[in-house]
Structure formats: structure tokens, C-alpha cells
Amino acid sequence: MTKLANVAVRNLRIELGANTVIKDLDLDVRAGEFVVLLGPSGCGKSTLLHSIAGLIDVTDGSIEIGGEDMTWADPKDRGVALVFQSYALYPTMNVERNMSFALRINGTPKPEIERRVKRAADMLQLGPLLARKPAQLSGGQRQRVAIGRALVREADVFLFDEPLSNLDAKLRTELRRELKQLHQQLGATMIYVTHDQVEAMTLATRMAVMKGGVIQQFGTPAEVYARPDNLFVATFLGTPPMNLLRGTLAADEGKLWFRGLDLAIDVTHYAFKGAPDLTRPCVLGVRPEDVHARGRGGAQDDRLSGSVTLVEPMGNHRVLWLDYHGVQIASIDQDKAPLASGAPVSIEIDAQHVSLFDEASGERL
């Protein structure tokens, strides 16, 4: 049976040629967690995953799995199972033999092989397909077979390297749901690599956002989305990304204000990490769902006025792109009232859900 194992990465450094791909990285994955490594191409997320699997030698640091030092252990001795982006199925073998191949090579008794294959096939709804060859399967079915091949090993840690990226949007959605249900059934430790923020937000119990071989932020999806640690995380997560407005902080009449582009927002309630510095430029970030645009009628105070530059209907909501003093601001809106391009609007920002960053460092204030 699958055992629960934690993964502890300490001061990990990986150099490939003249390039430092992973830079003194620490990562703690609790037993039974579903941790997602999220970041753009080239950020080092797959390299980190492959080092945990033992496919890449580390330059410095250590990797522990289940409390044991596995830094230099052979991949077969680490108790991990890896699902690649490519299905990598044997075309001449049927589904059952593809799933059981590693077990047969290792001399696992036939009754045990049958038990494990049946269990994995039932979980992944592959029972009716066990006699088929890969050429007779859809892309989604092939990826399920690849996942099943990993499951039959009953590993301590399951590693997924962008397993859904080759599938179309509908199949990705279906398999994403199946993977989450699979984790709930197994309760196993899983580490999953993706560049897709929707996969990360929906699958992860915790997610590590990476850039340049460094983890920028590690936390629950809700924490990372609501309180990004820096400007990179703020703009990498979210569709559309967080709106950014540059300005300064000012104290006035016992309150603290953000001021910029004729905009004044009361940020007295804001939980600063330290004493706010009123001398340094800062950046206010606000998610599109916290920007509200309303059609204007008649003569009104135009201090927070803007105009619609583009309307993107999304079915159950729409994205409004607004021009505010020459800055493009995105607003997610569920109002059904028609708004045409060029229409004047009043803009409201929910001050309770803003983020503030130092302009020079990009770090959260």
C-alpha cells in the first residue's frame, strides 16, 4: 500500500553547464499534500522535480524523502513514481501490460500485479480498456494509463511533470478533476509541475510560485492569490492579472492614503509588514474583481471617471478594459447592462482588498 512520506529540500543548488538553474532553494512538502510548482518556462520547476526523482544530480544541498537522505540514491530506491508530459506507452502492449510492465520486470507475484492493476484501473475508469493497445485510445485515456502505470507502484511520493499540457482544453478540465479526486482517495504525497495557473489554483493544497530558480512564494492558493509577496507573483497569477497603479503614501487627518493619478484611497486599515515609509514611491495592486465600473449619466464629479476601451464577454461574466488617465485597468463585471466601447464610466476600487508594493524592490509592504 502507498505510504505517506514528506519531502524536504535543503539549500538545493543545481548548475547545468555555466547556468545556475536552482539557487539555494528550500522546500518542505508535508506527507499527504498536493504541492504544485508553478512558474513560467525556464524557471527551474521541472529541474527541481527531476532532482527529487533522482534524474538530475545536484550541485549542492540535500533531498530527504520520508526522513531519509536521498540526495545521491538511485531513482529506483527513492520510493517515487514519475508521470511525464509524454505518455511514453509501449505501442505493442495493451493497457494492462503497459501498467504492469515495471512490476513484471521486478518479479512481483502475479496475484499482486493483478490486484494493483485492478485497483488503479478502477480508480481511473480504465477497466473496460485493459485489452486495448495505445493506438486505440484517446489522448486523455493514454494519459490515464500513464498515471495508472505510476499508481501500481504504490510509491511514497507521486511526481507529475506537466501531465496535461498535451491535451485539449476539455480533456484537461476532465483529467484535472480526476486527479484531484484521485488525491482525495489515495491521500498520497503529490508534487505537480505546471505553467498553468488554473491547474495550480484548483489542484494544490499549497503552491510554490517560481522564477529564475527561486521560490517567490509558497502557500495555499487563496493566500498567494489574495496576498502576493511581490510584484511578480501579483502579476503572474490571475486572468486578467492584478492592476498596478503607481503613487505615494501620505498621512492626512489621522488617516493613511495612497495617492496617484488623481486617485486617493484610504489604506489606513492595511496590514503593513513594518512602518510605512512615506518618502518612497510605491505601487498599489488591485484584482480586476475588486474594480467596479458603472455607466455614467448626466453631470457628475469626474475625479474617478474613465472610459471603456474594450468589452470581452465571458459567458457568466465579462471583462471590461478601462482607460483611466492613460492607464489600462481591467474590471471583472457581472452586470448585464450594455456598455459600448468608448462609453464613460465611474470607477470604484474596493480599498479592503488592495495590495501595496515597494516600487524599487517589488516586495510587498
From TrEMBL:
GO molecular function, one term: ATP hydrolysis activity
GO term, biological process aspect, one: carbohydrate transport
Coiled-coil portions: none
SUPFAM superfamilies named in the record: MOP-like, P-loop containing nucleoside triphosphate hydrolases
CDD domains membership: ABC_MalK_N
Cellular component GO terms held in the UniProt record: ATP-binding cassette (ABC) transporter complex, substrate-binding subunit-containing
Pfam families listed in its UniProt record: ABC_tran (PF00005), TOBE_2 (PF08402)
The keyword DNA damage appears for this protein: no
Annotated ABC transporter domain residues: 2-237
Keyword annotations: ATP-binding, Cell inner membrane, Cell membrane, Membrane, Nucleotide-binding, Sugar transport, Transport
InterPro entries from the UniProt entry: AAA+_ATPase, ABC_transporter-like_ATP-bd, ABC_transporter-like_CS, ABC_transpr_MalK-like, ABC_transpr_MalK/UgpC-like, Mo/tungstate-bd_C_term_dom, NA-bd_OB-fold, P-loop_NTPase
Protein name according to UniProt: Multiple sugar transport system ATP-binding protein
Organism field: Paraburkholderia bannensis
